[in-house]
């Protein structure tokens, strides 16, 4: 009975994650805003937390292959890092609001967040932010904004 319950929960989790897939048609009609500071997540919350994290219908999605500077915690680069974090967050918002996009999910990280990749025309938004020097490759890219 315990194994059956675990299998059911795993299947249910997979089905739940599948509902996170944002079709190009839906994404085109979805306006993403930046979450208010200290705002709490809710089951219906949809907003951009920072340059590498969004809430989509209450699901905490952490982008899996890139990292952006921190806007408020674990800051190593002072005011310059905060300014860069705000630019990365604004750029992610602009990309998502100007283009159809899709989400792929890949399990959870050690903090319980769902790991995800957002793609625009097949390109990972992380690659766009990296090319624009607003992000670094994760996990082994150099945190150049800390200098």
Q: Which blocks of ≥5 consecutive residues have pLDDT under 50?
A: 4-21
Count of distinct strands: 8
Average residue-wise pLDDT? 83
Helix percentage range: 25-40%
What's the multimeric state?
single chain
Class computed from helices, strands and strand pairing: alpha+beta
The end-to-end span amounts to: 55 Å
The major pleated sheet works out as: 6 strands, mixed
Question: Into which percentage range does the β-strand content fall?
Answer: 15-25%
Shape summary: globular
**SSE succession:** HHEEEEHEEEHE
Number of helices: 4
- Nearest-angstrom radius of gyration? 16 Å
Characterise this structure.
Helix content is 35%, strand content 22%. The protein has 147 residues and is of the alpha+beta class. The longest helix has 21 residues, at 78-98.
Could you give a quick summary of the protein structure above?
By secondary structure, this protein is an alpha+beta fold. It has helices spanning 2-18, 24-29, 78-98, 125-131, and strands at 47-50, 53-56, 59-63, 66-67, 102-108, 114-120, 123-124, 136-137.
Q: Secondary-structure map with pairings?
A:
Blueprint: H1 2-18, H2 24-29, E1 47-50, E2 53-56, E3 59-63, E4 66-67, H3 78-98, E5 102-108, E6 114-120, E7 123-124, H4 125-131, E8 136-137
Index terms:
147 residues, alpha+beta, six-stranded mixed beta sheet, 4 helices, 8 strands, 22% strand
């Amino acid at each position: 009975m315990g194994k059956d319950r675990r299998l059911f929960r795993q299947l249910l989790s997979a089905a739940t994650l599948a509902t996170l897939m944002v079709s190009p048609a839906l994404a085109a009609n979805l306006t993403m805003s930046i979450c208010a500071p200290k705002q709490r997540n809710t089951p219906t919350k949809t907003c951009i937390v920072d340059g590498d994290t969004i809430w989509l219908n209450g699901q905490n999605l952490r982008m899996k292959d890139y990292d952006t500077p921190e806007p408020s915690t674990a800051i190593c680069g002072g005011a310059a890092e905060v300014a860069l974090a705000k630019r990365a967050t604004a750029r992610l918002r602009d990309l998502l609001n100007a283009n159809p996009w899709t989400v792929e999910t890949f399990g959870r990280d050690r903090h319980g967040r769902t790991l995800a990749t957002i793609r625009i025309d097949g390109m990972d938004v992380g690659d766009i932010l990296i090319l624009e020097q607003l992000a670094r490759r994760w996990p082994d890219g150099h945190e150049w904004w800390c200098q």
